[in-house]
Amino acid sequence: MKPRLLELDRRHVWHPYTQASSAREPLLIERASGSRLYDSDGKSYIDANSSWYCAVLGHDHPRLVAALRDQLERLPHVALAGITHEPAVLLAEALVQKAPGELSRVFYSDDGSTAIESALKLCVQYWHQNGKPERRRFVALDSAFHGETLGATAVSGVPVFRRPFASVVLDCVHLPPELDGPERAFSALEALLERDAARIAAVVLEPVVQAAGGMRIYDPALVRAARELTRRHDVFLIVDEVFTGFGRTGPYWALEHAGVEPDLLCLAKGLGGGLLPFAATLATERLYEGFLGAPERTFFYGHTFCGNPLGARVALELLRVYEDERVIEQAEPKAQRIARAFSRFGELPGVERARSLGMVAALDLTAEGYLGTLGKAVYAEALRRGAYLRPLGDTIYVTPPINIPDPDLDELLEIVGASVQHALEQARP
Ligand SMILES: Cc1ncc(COP(=O)(O)O)c(C=O)c1O
After folding, report:
1. Residues 143 and 246 in one domain
2. Nearest ligand 1 atom to alpha carbon 210
3. Which of 183, 229, 274, 350 has its C-alpha lying 20 to 30 A from 4's C-alpha?
4. The domain that contains 126 carries what CATH number?
5. Which residue range is the domain that position 116 belongs to?
6. 120 and 237 assigned to the same domain
7. Alpha-carbon distances, residue 4 vs 7, 72, 116 (angstroms)
8. In the predicted model, is pLDDT for residue 182 greater than 70?
9. Is the pLDDT of residue 163 over 70?
10. Domain-ending residue, one of 307, 324, 341
11. Residue 417 is part of a domain; what is its CATH number?
């Protein structure tokens, strides 16, 4: 069966973020449990990136699976227009209680990209119908990544992803990447807003860590600066916690590093517990009220599966598991283990820069970013040693499940060190 599946895959499946002409054969994964993936030969791989950051509690947390099964038998799906249901209502209540600041309204969608898309559209339409239609430009950070739709692409700043679409996307100004010096970024944003606030709908950012842009950790002072300046100029602040939420950077929300309250908060990935695509965009009462009144003020937007009962039920259970199992507190010593290991890796000759924050850590082998090739050698060696460690070009990183068992974590860190060393040795002339 394996050769046939791989042959059919080669013929018909178009894999994401994959250059088919040079990609290695994909792993044929049959099942997943805890922090491990199992292939068709029974070999296991530690899932070093929680399957693109979503399996925050591993792959088969018994309470999430039980909630999903139970919901499947009651109500798998129904549209949310003119209808409501218990999981959507209770989840909305739980999210507004848990979220930072004065967010009181929850708009559901499918994934990180649509959570961002919803936020962008909410801002544009808000200004359009509340007296400032010229406010339709966005401000984002260089190296940001906010997703795949054209709206999300517009505010993303990874050049290799954005370049082909640069001429067809929304108007967005990207701030220069002086993330190591928040004062300079602050001045750049200050100057931009002083000059142009009348045309700006919102500033959007990933708080404290830019994920797909290269696991770039930056000073929370920049997030605070963005909040202060957007308030001063009455511009919305959209915060994208799609990657950073649910303890990825240590606290429950990365915004806690900065003590900032956003106007819009985008959640996805971990929210669906790694079982289902599910997303939410949380908004303030001011935004919500800006859509009340005449029929044409309606937010004419909604994805078929928004608020899907299965996803909502799993997300609600996830929030409860975080409290009951004290997931954030339990992760603290794990984060310290990761930090210690990556600070050792930073000493390896050939490693350019190692860094970590909470349950995310990264190192660069070159400055070539996505088009670097050394990362592929690390990937291959890590697979051989039993970890699925998918680099971003030449940036090697780990974002394991927040509750990864200590023995798995130690094994993963050992594999990272050995695989990086192996790749660097192979690359030496
Ligand atoms: C910060 C951030 N926002 C948005 C997205 C897009 O999420 P999705 O792939 O679920 O559309 C991602 C995906 O990696 C992300 O890291």
Report:
1. yes
2. 1
3. 274
4. 3.40.640.10
5. 62-324
6. yes
7. 5, 32, 39
8. no
9. yes
10. 324
11. 3.90.1150.10
Residue 180 has pLDDT above 60, yes or no: no
Per the model's pLDDT, the better-predicted residue between 46 and 159 turns out to be: 46
247, 130: one domain: yes
Taking the centre of ligand 1 as the mean of its atom positions, its distance from the CA of residue 296, in whole angstroms, is 31
Mean pLDDT of the chain: 95
Q: 354 and 250 share a domain?
A: no
Kindly report, residue by residue over 409-418, the tens digit of the pLDDT: 999 999 999 9
Q: Which ligand 1 atom minimizes the distance to the CA of 114?
A: 11
83 and 52 belong to one structural domain: no
Answering whether pTM is above 0.90, one says yes
Task: Answer yes or no: is the C-beta of 212 below 6 A from any ligand 1 atom.
Answer: yes
117 lines ligand 1 (CB under 6 A): no
Answer yes or no: is pLDDT of 258 > 90: yes
Same domain for 68 and 55, yes or no, is: no
Q: Are residues 184 and 271 in the same domain?
A: yes
Tally of structural domains, the chain: 2
Measured from the Cα of 212, ligand 1's closest atom is: 16
Same domain, 72 and 13: no
Q: Which residue's CA is the closest to the ligand 1 atom numbered 3?
A: 146
Please say which residue of 259, 290, 324 terminates a domain. Answer: 324
Q: 21 alpha carbon to ligand 1 midpoint, in Å?
A: 25
CA-nearest residue, atom 16 of ligand 1 = 243
Ligand 1: centre distance to CA 116 (Å): 9
Ligand 1 and 139: CB distance under 6 A:
no
CA of 78 to the centre of ligand 1 (A): 25
